[in-house]
Amino acid sequence: MEQAQYHNTNIRARIGKMSGAVGIICNCLLAAGKLIVGHMTSSMSITADGLNNLSDGASSIVTLLGFKLAEKPADRKHPYGHARIEYIAGLTVAVMILFIGLELGKSSVQKFINPEPIEFSLTAVWVLCASILVKLFMMLFNLKMGRRINSNALLATAADSRNDVMTTSAVLAASIVEHLYDVRIDGVMGIAVSLFILYSGVKLAGETMSPLLGEGANPELQKQITDYINGCPMVLGCHDLMVHDYGPGRRYASIHVEIDKNEDPMACHARIDEMERECLKNYGTHLVIHYDPVVTDDPEVNSTKKLVNTIIKVRDSRLTIHDFRMVDDGESVKMSFDMILPEDLRGQEQSIKETVEKALDSLDSKKYYADITFDMESDGVEKG
Fold first, then answer.
1. Residues 246-262: what's their mean pLDDT?
2. Which of 55, 80, 228, 333 is an S-S bond match for 246, by CB 3.0 to 4.6 Å?
3. pLDDT reading at 262 higher than 50
């Protein structure tokens, strides 16, 4: 059920819009209560916390609209759909949070420079306590919904609610301390609240910008897909998995799958079609599989490939190869293959190539030439 809700765009949209509506109602009620109490008690920290809730309400509106627009179907101009609007909504929320944080910081600094006494009120205490309880509910609600549909936007909202619990608790503490000890810390607490808002805004901006810029595929998703492919009948191995994210529920990927060249091509085609359908069903990913026929019954090719594997493992145990091809004209041997190269070995390609050629030359009277295509480890996954 959890998996289905993550991949079903209609269910994602319903949950996202419901979370946005709950956020609008709760945050607007909290903001109204705190702004009224903050004005009555001349408390900048309570007012700052109320404005923070108001910004959260505006953020919830953006979130609701984001999920609404993201569910629009694909069209001629946007053949991969509009799901990335969810990321844009998150970025908009981050900008709003940063703006509110800056404004509150400026007001709190002025209050720190020119402190004024706070009029203590049990009403203010009750409002702040109620706010903490409401924000705890919102944190748990958005955390549950965010995990259910794997939404960074809702998980960020949950984290923001958690931060609000902490900042409101700090505001409550400031009111009590000023009342009991006559110490002017309201401006300091207001500054602390604004800094927390700014921190949340910067963090949220980074989380939402990363997928828009084109971040790498989730390692867990990579493992799920490659483990499934490698476990299928006829498959000898897979490599060069590339995943393109066009928003939640809009993932497209390609992968190379190695199958014995002696297998029936029609059976291979049917198997590949089945694997593509299963990946869409189970992992929400539109997968395109490139079929790599592999020679398995040529002793010389198998022996040379084994030697190359031994040589590169001595150089670095993390190195792996695939798509091995070989042409022997009697005097020289031309090999071509791909090699998965860990990122920290970048720049050593020529040295690795020479290591392979020299090691093979020393074992045979023939001259060996290696045509190696180096794939960065972050660009593909080698299994099998």
1. 84
2. 80
3. yes
Query: What value, to the nearest 5°, has the Cα angle with vertex 54 and ends 50 and 57?
Result: 140
From residue 137, how far is each of 61, 90, 162, 189, 200 by CA, in Å?
A: 19, 21, 10, 24, 19
User: Between β-strands 332-341 and 251-260, what pairing exists: parallel, antiparallel or unpaired?
Assistant: unpaired
CA distances from 307 to 120, 244, 302, 339, 359 (A): 81, 36, 9, 14, 9
By residue count, the chain amounts to 384
Number of H helices, E strands in the chain: 11, 6
**Single-letter residue type at 306:** K
233: alpha, beta or left? (left if phi > 0; alpha if psi -120 to 50): beta
DSSP assignment letter at 378: G
List strand residue ranges (DSSP E) for the chain, in order.
235-245, 251-260, 285-294, 320-328, 332-341, 367-376
Radius of gyration, alpha carbons of the chain:
29
C-alpha distances in Å from residue 195, one per residue of 3, 52, 103, 233: 37, 12, 11, 56
Amino acid letter at 34? K
pLDDT for residue 135: 87
pLDDT in tens, 159-200: 778 877 877 777 777 778 777 877 777 677 778 878 877 887
Q: Are 324 and 298 in contact (CB under 8 A)?
A: no
Q: Quick: pLDDT tens for 74-132.
A: 778 877 777 777 778 777 777 877 887 787 788 778 777 877 665 667 777 888 888 89
Query: For residue 317, which phi and psi values (nearest 5 degrees)?
Result: -65, -15
- In this prediction the pTM is 0.60
Q: Where does residue 95 rank: exposed (0-12), middle (13-18), buried (19+ CB within 10 A)?
A: middle
Q: What is the DSSP-derived secondary structure letter of residue 258? A: E
The reported pLDDT for the residue numbered 278 is 93
